[in-house]
Amino acid sequence: MVRSSKDAMDAALKSKTNTPGMCQKWTRDWFAAPSSGDQDKDGDSDAVDGWRHEPVSARHEGDRKPPPGKPLAFKGGSKGHGHRCISWTGGTTRSTDMQNGRYASGIVGFATIGEIEKAMGVQYLGWSETISGLKIPAEPKPPPLPPLPAGAFEVIVATNNVMSNPMNKHIVPTLTASTSTPTVVGLQEINPAKFKAAAEKLKGWDLCDIPAGNNYGAGIMYEEAVWELKGKRYVKQYDGVANISYTRHICIARLYNKKHKFDAIFMSFHQVSKGDDNNRKRMRKEALAILRKEKDRYVAQGVPVWIMGDYNSTATQHTSADVVLKHGIDHIYFWNGKEETGKKRATRVVDTKSDHDVFIARFTMKKVAKKK
User: Fold this and answer.
1) Which of 51, 86, 328, 342 gets the most CB atoms within 10 Å of its CB?
2) What is d(CA 236, CA 105) in angstroms, rounded to the nearest whole number?
3) Strands 305-310, 262-270: parallel, antiparallel or unpaired by DSSP?
4) Taken in order 156, 162, 164, 167, is the CA torsion positive or negative?
């Protein structure tokens, strides 16, 4: 049996270099698949042979939106051998002889289908559900969610540090492919102009962007059909120190849920990286003190409060939270409101093959019965 898509992606991520001209072998090795042989009888076993070996029924010819972890095929090139690689999350691929969307002989890196076509002079053929003619095993299905109690509703939030995402310049397809269920996403390190411009093109979403001059800050995106922006604030958490961190701000959005008619506060937060030097210790302490002060302000108002952030630590940072959820250094915290309370329904992780996955949390919410 060949490897699953996830296992093949794990293998591909471990590959940093490759033997030039061996893309077909490299790709099938990621899947632990046997050789496809010389299908066209031209004296070699190349990417074109790999494509011809896949059953017609398993091919998705011309489909430029393959699911992650599937073999892609191209034809043409300077010697007519075509090209083979593996699809990735966020509308990109992991490919031999490519790095950051450019041709790089002997380097395994990330590139879109279009970038491969341009760099290698090849033409995209499609993706397949098989490799070397063998079915790629399906990933196990997650267990079913517990049912919502009568009168309850759901709020789904997520956090993601896009700078640590290997396809960081593809932020829009990353969000649409990986976080299609959340309606609010806390983003960290999204400030550079290329991220901001891409995020603002995401149809049906709005970005609480970061004021000019704040490098690699935090932001919040929300689905406009679900939430209305009532206000936003940016609170400085510490001044930057050379070779440690940029000046950072907490992004705070007050959103109104149109269907269930309540206000909520969402905060996106990025902590300074770990370290024992005095500057880092001071900055971490200052940042948490300011964050807690801001959180307390809104908890006192009686509105539900979510904090989504990159804490650069696995320690519990907010012991007063009603819900504490952690995936590595990415945390989501929740405080009940006076009229709306919530509890964890489920969490989900979308593996972006970096130190920051997309961490998604589903909350079961209910209205507090008003006293007569």
Assistant:
1) 86
2) 44
3) parallel
4) positive
Rg value, the chain, Cα:
23
Task: Say if CB 87 and CB 111 are below 8 A apart.
Answer: no
- Provide the whole-model pTM: 0.74
> Which token pair is 197?
């411009």
312/332 Cα distance (integer angstroms): 13
- Give the whole-number percent of the chain exceeding pLDDT 70: 91
Task: Return the CATH fold of 153-367.
Answer: Deoxyribonuclease I; Chain A (3.60.10)
Q: What is the C-alpha to C-alpha distance for residues 311 and 267, in angstroms, rounded to an integer?
A: 13
Termini Cα distance of the chain: 65
pLDDT one-digit tens code per residue, 71-118: 999 999 988 899 999 998 767 899 999 988 899 999 998 899 999 999
Residue 17 is classified by DSSP as B
- Indicate the DSSP class of residue 170: G
Residue with tokens 């699809």: 87
For 198-257, write each residue's pLDDT tens digit.
677 777 888 886 666 667 788 899 999 999 999 999 999 988 898 888 888 999 999 999
- HSE toward the beta carbon, residue 28, CA cutoff 13 A: 25
Give the tens place of pLDDT for each residue, 264-297: 999 999 999 887 889 999 999 999 999 999 999 9
| Burial 244-277, CB ≥16 within 10 A → b, else e | ebbebbbbbbbbebeeeebbbbbbbbbbbeeeee
193: tokens are: 């102009």
Q: At what angle do helices 23-30 and 5-14 cross, to 10 degrees?
A: 130
Q: Is 1 exposed, middle or buried (0-12, 13-18, 19+ CB in 10 A)?
A: exposed
Rounded distance, CA 137 to CA 317, Å? 40
Q: How far apart are CA 34 and CA 133, in angstroms?
A: 9
**Residues 6+ away with beta carbon under 8 Å from 4:** 69, 136, 137, 138, 139
- Give residue limits of the domains in the chain: 5-135, 153-367
Residues 269, 248: Cα–Cα separation, whole Å: 9
Per CATH, the homologous superfamily of domain 5-135 is endopeptidase domain like (from Nostoc punctiforme) (3.90.1720.10)
